[in-house]
Specification:
6 helices, about 60% helix, about 0% strand, elongated
Length: about 150
């Protein structure tokens, strides 16, 4: 096992990272504040009087309020945008590996990708969406697993 593979294997995986509950609670309160502000503005602008289903029971979405608002505005949540960026950067690494496997910029790209993966794991709303860190040896396998169905 070479030094790079050992570093990738010994790196802390998402399940090993401790959650910062105070930070997560603060983010949740911030999201709730945004949703409350949007609702208040809607009410002040007379939105309740113009609802199509006025007087009928509401169907309340069970997912994250901010994600629902962003989805309705056709905006991807930050973690999805980051996931797309990671995919494109992984494709670049694979192309470089195919052309010039000894290129030194590959290691810099892998380092940046692993930082992005750590950030993605912090932003993703579910542990099932977390990703493992990558190395030269597993980048193709992980790309296939994450982006090619």
């Amino acid at each position: 096992m070479d030094k790079e593979e050992h570093a990738a294997r010994s790196a802390r995986q998402p399940r090993d990272v401790l959650e910062n509950r105070d930070a997560m609670d603060s983010i949740e309160r911030q999201k709730e504040g945004w949703a409350n502000d949007a609702y208040e503005q809607f009410v002040q602008n007379g939105g309740l009087e113009r609802l199509a289903g006025i007087g009928k029971p509401l169907v309340v979405p069970t997912d994250d309020v901010l994600d629902t608002i962003l989805r309705n505005a056709n905006v991807d949540p930050p973690w999805i945008m980051l996931r797309k960026e990671i995919g494109s950067n992984m494709a670049k690494v694979i192309q470089l590996l195919d052309k010039t496997p000894a290129a030194p910029e590959i290691d810099a790209l892998l380092s940046e990708l692993n930082k992005q993966i750590i950030e993605l794991n912090a932003l993703a709303p579910s542990r099932s969406l977390h990703r493992h860190l990558i190395s030269r040896h597993n980048v193709r396998e992980q790309y296939q697993r994450w982006y090619i169905k």
